[in-house]
């Protein structure tokens, strides 16, 4: 049998690829197992009908609700994971997000370490993902020890007008920190990058940045279409002894010194639950699969029938005026940011009985927003397994914040000159911000992982994806996952040389 690698990383999304980049050139042999294949550059990459109408890239699998009703999840299985389709917003959690915060729906718990501990790793992650941004525009922006590596992606003229209208209302619109070279992206086609797959041009995702950096080390190897089916504990129960995976029709296994699980918050929890008896592996706390969070979010279209919006990509600004409080000294609401520009082909599949010409008219005159509020951890919000099936029992919390943010944003849009404002919340099919199912903490009785994402039960197991997040905050989690992945990689390297 071939020699087992020193480290196996399960998954090549933001967590897995970034921890691989942090461990590269350490002298360790590293095997990355990715259940998907590389995303090919085909005509469907730029075809909104194929992406949003036909669901060309959606997975061929069904998950189930607690009542067993099936649904097709918005999980993507490619090298680079969900980041192949993300909106490339690489924003830091606010400093306050690391402390206990009282929301309308309850209390968001404190992290096991403060923002200052993660700050240097945020900076390194911004360099790795070549983030474009600007400091000094957002009053909630936490301390940065270095400026962004590149200047912000410029507003298109239609969006520059929106920025000025928001400023006129006393708001603080700020350039979104983005991992995208917009000129390179547009050289492929005139589409937004938000929810469009990245075939290698312009978007800084887990494959094009972190994984590419890791694979520069000849000791790092990637195997695609390699689906891990279970982990096996060593005889003493204190370590993971083997990783079992299927590649095509062949069953394989390896016995590494370290296992890093980075399959995504739902799949990482499901794999641990499937892998052992009496509640699964790494689950002495009974918390694996619990505290699932996914943000409470909604799309909002601000429509002015008199003015066309000729923006192509649109997604360059957001604001956090209601992030820490509701604008009147009350509890937090959340983040507001632009969506990628919608088109009639994107709108039609999401609105039943909407004629094609009406969809084109609305989309051509709308400015499209994404409203995001914090989903709080709840132990009864959980991932379960039933045989080979994943059961998602999502207990949504803090919906009052989304209700209030939607109302406030509706007023802002109308005051900006948009007489028609439409909104719709996202549902369980959109799992782009899934997190919290294998959380880290200081107490092994209440958290499966320690503050360096190491299992309290199996000391050669780390879980490095959004499942480690103890809270969801109310901004995109990708950069925070990447920063913690680099912190964990540094910890592993230092331990190896201790």
TrEMBL record:
Entry-linked SUPFAM superfamilies: FAD/NAD(P)-binding domain
Similarity remark: Belongs to the GMC oxidoreductase family.
Pfam families referenced in this protein's UniProt entry, alphabetically: GMC_oxred_C, GMC_oxred_N, NAD_binding_8
InterPro entries cross-referenced by the UniProt entry: FAD/NAD-bd_sf (IPR036188), GMC_OxRdtase_N (IPR000172), GMC_OxRtase_C (IPR007867), P2Ox-like (IPR051473)
The protein's name in its UniProt record: GMC family oxidoreductase
Residue stretches making up the Glucose-methanol-choline oxidoreductase C-terminal domain: 394-485
Entry keywords, A to Z: FAD, Flavoprotein, Oxidoreductase
Annotated ranges, domain Glucose-methanol-choline oxidoreductase N-terminal: 202-295
Coiled-coil ranges from the UniProt annotation: none
Cofactor: FAD
